[in-house]
Amino acid sequence: MGFNCGIVGMPNVGKSTLFNALTATAAAEAANFPFCTIEPNVGRVAVPDPRLDSIAAIAKSAKIIPTQLEFVDIAGLVRGASRGEGLGNQFLANIREVDAIVHVLRCFEDPNVTHVDDTIDPVRDAETVETELMLADLDSLEKRLTPLEKKVRGGDKDARIQMALVERALVALREGQAARTVEISDDEGKAFRMLQLLTAKPVLYVCNVGEDDAADGNEYSARVAAMAASQGAGSVVISAQIEEEISQLTDETERAEFLETLGLHETGLARVIRAGYELLKLITFFTAGPKETRAWTVVQGAKAPQAAGVIHTDFERGFIRVETISFDDFTMLGGEQGAKDAGKMRQEGRDYLTQDGDIMLFRFNV
Predict the structure, then answer these.
(1) Got the DSSP string for 84-97?
(2) Contact 72, 5 (CB under 8 A)
(3) In a 3-state reduction of DSSP, which class is residue 126?
(4) For residues 98 and 5, is the Cβ–Cβ distance under 8 A?
(5) From the centroid of its chain, how far is CA 270?
(6) What is the pLDDT of residue 189?
(7) Which of 21, 52, 73, 222 is in Cβ range 3.0-4.6 Å of 41 for a Cys bridge?
(8) What Rg value do the Cα atoms of the chain yield, rounded?
(9) Who's near 158: CB < 8 A, 6+ residues apart?
């Protein structure tokens, strides 16, 4: 699978409650005191995709296997984390390992749930976490300067490229801007990722509201949405409390009825996953047959051999060609044979860019 989102935020904002609901497990202890999550909990959730059922029905598949997204519940952060305060060092190490940040912000009032700053201000909380991440990035980059300077003087070309990136990132961070704001060319992408900067990761703000505000949000979530828009980030309104209740309902009809009574059309899980997909620039392709219909995840712009490699490394190594049908053609023409007869099954080579919704059959030889 290989794509994961770290759930972060201040203590007591609902991170573990949200994680429990998203993964429909009790793996993370949700308790009303800071640092109840000591080790990062990891859970994989199936990505809801109605196309799977349509494809499986036409292919008469015995089994349906959705693609998955991984969520990592990470310990709460407080001011001074970049200097090791609280569980700062552990927090920073854990967040460095994820592909994207799902930043949970408390957007609800509840006198029974404490807040480390005593007042509710999600924008302030977001800035606290972002500041700590920027300070950690500054410290990391400044420590690299002297060793890189020595390598550059020695004529190391790779070091010269990395040095230029470090200097540009330092300018942004010293001006209070996250590393993700630095413009990077395609050629510089790999070297920039090797810097492992915390503030280079894409961010999705999740506004955790009370049940009454789950449908339309509130003034707190509106402020977060404005902040996210100014940063080019995403934001989603969700009630972790409602999601926890939904996760206990196993019957789909009961879930739908429960959502309808709250004025909701879908679960927060679906919204978070869809936003996470957009954040990571992911798309889904499918394989289908009598045994199973299965969804697979790749990054936008992935070529056919890369998509084949998601299934098995041998498929990529021995890639010959791919036979592909769009989802619309597959469903309108009654499946593979109908698409073939209508000339809608295409044979593509290794430069083919995988499209969202492609039904693919790989030909390979190892």
Answers:
(1) T-TTHHHHHHHHHT
(2) yes
(3) helix
(4) yes
(5) 12
(6) 86
(7) 73
(8) 23
(9) 191
Tokens standing for residue 74: 């990470």
Residues 329 and 288 sit within 8 Å (Cβ to Cβ): no
Q: How far apart are CA 297 and CA 277, in angstroms?
A: 9
Q: What is the pLDDT of residues 22-56, one digit of tens each?
A: 776 434 444 444 434 445 588 888 888 899 999 99
Helices (H), the chain: 15-23, 51-59, 88-96, 122-153, 157-174, 189-193, 219-231, 240-247, 252-261, 268-280, 304-311, 313-317, 327-332, 336-341
From the centroid of its chain, how far is CA 147?
Answer: 33
Nearest alpha carbon to residue 41 among 12, 65, 17: 17
Express each pLDDT in 240-279 by its tens digit: 888 888 888 878 788 889 888 888 888 887 888 888 888 8
Backbone angles phi, psi at 238, to 5 degrees: -150, 150
What is the distance between the alpha carbons of residues 276 and 311, in angstroms, rounded to a whole number? Answer: 22
- Both tokens assigned to 259: 């959502």
CB 204 within 8 A of CB 279: yes
Return the structure tokens found at 123. 């924008």
50: which strand partners? none
**Helical axes 240-247 vs 252-261, angle rounded to 10°:** 150
Helix (H, G, I), strand (E, B) or coil at 360: strand
CB atoms within 10 A of CB 167: 12
Q: How many CB atoms within 10 Å of residue 312? A: 13
Cα-Cα-Cα-Cα torsion 93, 94, 96, 102, nearest 10 degrees, comes to -140
Question: What would the two tokens of residue 296 be?
Answer: 């697979």
325 contacts 338 by C-beta, under 8 angstroms = no
Average pLDDT in the chain: 86
Whole-model pTM? 0.81
| pLDDT, tens only, 134-155 | 998 998 999 998 999 999 988 8
